[in-house]
Records
---
Amino acid sequence: DSKGVADYHTPTNGGIQKLKFINEPNLYRIIFRSNKTEALNFQNWVFAEVLPSIRKTGSYSARQSAYEELNRLCMQEKVSKDKGTFHSLGMHRRKYEKHLNAKRIQTCKANLQIAFDGLHHE
């Protein structure tokens, strides 16, 4: 459809259902107008990571960004550990930082695994 919206009718157990599909450009228009948390997170990612990467390098690689994030988190954990030891920061603060960094590193590793799994299916 020239407006970027297409209607489809599909049979279901409850009868014929009308489905509305939008094209990718209109999907982004909706997301960038939304104030939902998920949409705002997506907007922040696009504005802070994707667009600057495209401007600087002409492309964006989620895999490379995930590696950079994992390296950054590992360095942050090392610095936090050294700083905690050197400056004798409170144990509660160090434990909290360690817990946060461990969760972030685990998430990063999981995202990298998903990216690699996706490569095998392409």
---
Amino acid sequence: MIVPESVNPPASSSFAKNTRATIGVLGEEFVADWLRSQDWQILHHRWHCRLGEIDVIAQSQMPQCLTFVEVKTRSKGNWDSDGLLAITPSKQKKLWQTAQLFLMAHPDLATLPCQFDVALVRCQSAPKKRAQDLTPGSLLLQKSQLPFPAESDLPMTRTIAGYQLTLHHYIPEAFTL
């Protein structure tokens, strides 16, 4: 369970579920921003249908490709290898079926080559800035406003909404069916 360090509610509480969902959305937005910085066009974020949801659907221009991205955001010390073990064969099948429904709903994209990528994001509460850590220039340009580094520069970290997110693995063509 991912919750702020200062709060430790029971796992069944609605607060814990809302916090997990919020952190998951932050991770997805973080990855979408990173893909944009790599010159990808984000077509959909959290596209859903009766079978499930695809976190990010993006299109690259060179080479032209449609990519369905599954984002796993986890706290440090998680049980499933930062979300990688959550991409089970049944999860892959569900993503494949959901992607097929997406392509049926968007036939103009159905002729593009497609792939399934996985992004693994770590999350923790952002460290608090102390007054002595602040300098006059530090308030002008926040780290989250800086350009993203290239894919080869992973892992990379951003502070968003009080959380420190680290994109530590982006796995292109993570699975095929």
